[in-house]
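U., I forgot to send this yesterday:
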Amino acid sequence: MKSYVFPGQGSQFPGMCHDLYQKHTELKEMFEKAADILKFDISKIMFNGSAEELTQTKVTQPAIFIHSMAILSVLKNSFKPGQVSGHSLGEFSALVAAGVLSFEDGLKLVSTRAKAMQKSCENTKGTMAAILALENELIETICEDVNGIVVAANYNCPGQVVISGELKAIKEACSKLLDAGARRALILPVGGAFHSPLMEDAKLELSIAINNANFNEPTCSIYQNVNGIGETSLVKIKENLISQLTSPVKWTHCIDQMVKDGATEFIEIGPGKALQGLIKKINRNLIISSPDL
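Result:
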């Protein structure tokens, strides 16, 4: 069974989607719709902007979503997913791929999410750090013993967990994790403490937008970050989408469960190949690729 996965924040790069846009003139209408919804010409930043401009959360998230949607548009009738999943922001791309959201509604929610998260980042100094080669349970225990807010935020693959929280707490946790045997504890260049309690205000704002959006029945199971289980219930899909902002991304769980449920081939739809690298570390026996465009 072919399963499709969609990347999240961090996969952006200067010039993203420009080659595809030049090759497929039908994408012009999609970018015009995006400009109308966002109230700015995102194509200029995607095609010609600097890395710094692209790392603003309010720009990054719509840009990655649009890039994934452009690839879907080019694939057209050859896109027949058995399962879908997305890493953090990528979950919104997965929902469009499964027919739950339209491109327009998906982009509106992504924009609302990005702005709300940016606001939370500005209100509280937070960050994230990648912890390599340490057991999940030990990371969780050490985070619990640190003064301040710090939690495991991304279970990306065996031996790679990202923690998230207040800046001071992250620094203390990194020191303790290195002492406990972590190979690396690297503070990441991100704008805030994503997937932690510091996103609570953003979660409230996003929940209003999600509950007012038009959701349709999915054409296949959506494996969501909150629990790693394939969902088809719209009630559950919405609940999980809202909870995701303050809950860890259980990416390893998603991939393992998709394989248990019949996935034999994974195709990454979006900028870069970050998810392909993670999936190889989760299960080396899987066929993993990007679409040939």
